[in-house]
Amino acid sequence: MFRKIDDKTFASPQIELSDVAEAQAMGIGMIINNRPEDESPDQTPGAEIEAAAKAAGIAYVAIPVTHAGFSMPQVEAMQAALAEAGDKPVLAYCRSGTRSTLLWALTQARMGMAPDQIAAHAAGAGYDVSPIMPQIDFLAAQAR
After folding, report:
1. Which domains does the chain have, with CATH numbers?
2. CB neighbours of 96 closer than 8 A, spacing ≥ 6?
3. Is residue 12 classed exposed, middle or buried when 0-12, 13-18 and 19+ CB atoms within 10 A define those classes?
4. Residue 144 has pLDDT above 90, yes or no
5. CA–CA separation, 37 vs 64, rounded Å?
6. Which residues does the UniProt record annotate as the domain Beta-lactamase hydrolase-like protein phosphatase-like (predicted)?
7. How confident is the model at residue 1 (pLDDT cuts 50, 70, 90)?
């Protein structure tokens, strides 16, 4: 269920409380929730995931992304969360894992990763970043 984007980052569709134990067993150091609360009636509330994560010794951050798109404050928050996690792996989730992967991609571009490398990592995890490639290119060019 957890898809490996790079050596430090995994993306996932909505996780359940039982998935926190799997994340702990994998050595995940932080869970990033990219899903807005009450997006659908069947999603596990972020507060419940946060409590389970903290009980398991895993940091938790909520950076909700709606279908309206991405903003620089979200990219900056993701960059800060990844930095805070240090060398520990991170698990980011949303409804399907796509928004988490796209936010990861924008963050990597802002930090200077080459757009083709970003696209290759995302594709390796089964995600397509082509819808935001102009933004990735823009951020990567600014990082140079």
Report:
1. 3-143 (3.90.190.10)
2. 13
3. buried
4. no
5. 8
6. 2-110
7. confident
